[in-house]
Amino acid sequence: MKHYGTAKIISQKQLSSAYFLLTLECPEIACTASPGQFVMISCGGQTYLKRPMGLSGANAKHGTISFIYQKSGTGTHALHERKEDEDIEIIGPLGNCFELESGAKSVALVGGGTGIGPLLFCAERMSAEHPEAALSAFIGARSKKILCGEEEIGHFARTVYVATDDGSYGEKGLITDALSRFLKENALDQIITCGPTVMMQKVAEISAHYHISCQASLEEHMACGFGACLGCPCTVKDEGYKMICLDGPVFDAAKIVWQKE
Questions:
Q1: Residues 203, 191 contacting (CB under 8 angstroms)
Q2: Could you tell me which of 194, 213, 193 has the C-alpha nearest to residue 255?
């Protein structure tokens, strides 16, 4: 059941030079949310439309939820100015969720940017509910100073691979290149990806090449979050247009009609 109401700000934590973790008290969402789902929140300031935020955690025991955001535009700058104990308007949980494939024993989580958030939630939940599934994490960033999530996801993944565009930390280059090298010597049953569209498209291509099931969580600007505004369409093979907020955000990567670069 969706919660339409308010949540109390518990804390704001800086994860890197660009990314922050916001934790809210909202038992109504915390007890029902699943990895891959998102919330729509009101940032405050001069912004009026709510912003979609992929959940990076939900603790039913403590009644808290969290998400990672990048301070980049008007809305997220206003969000960053919000203080502890303030109430914030929120709707959620929205969308569908990641699912572990039946019989999957080895899973790779591939992400970058704010896409790390949903993967953290996925890693935490999978490690608790499916400890038999070996998790590997692949995290990409432009540079070390904006990298986030390595330590947090390392609590759940057996191995964490990191790549930066400028080589300031981890391997130099794209995280999808690290994934390709990994698959030359290792087998995977499933890949889950969330982050920049160009990265996810490449992950989908790699998954198809190795015949690996892949789920991708698409990111898009949303005005409503539940399909009314028709503002976040994507094309799915043999199914036509789908709304990312209503039918997703998680889709079978092999069925997505990716836009040409």
A1: yes
A2: 213
Q: Rounded to an integer, what distance in angstroms lies between the CA atom of residue 246 and that of residue 118?
A: 17
- Which CATH number characterizes residue 12's domain? 2.40.30.10
Instruction: Calculate the average pLDDT of the chain.
Output: 93
The tens digit of pLDDT for each residue in 178-190 reads: 999 999 999 999 9
Name residue 80's amino acid. H
Condensed to tens digits (0 to 9), the pLDDT of residues 223-249 reads 777 777 878 899 999 999 999 999 999
Neighbours of 175 (CB within 10 A): 27
Give the count of domains, the chain.
Answer: 1
State which residues form the domain around 38: 3-94
Instruction: Kindly state whether residue 194 falls inside one of the protein's structural domains.
Output: no
Q: Is 196 helix (H, G, I), strand (E, B) or coil?
A: coil
CA 200 to chain centre: 12
* Assessment of whether the complete model's pTM goes beyond 0.85: yes
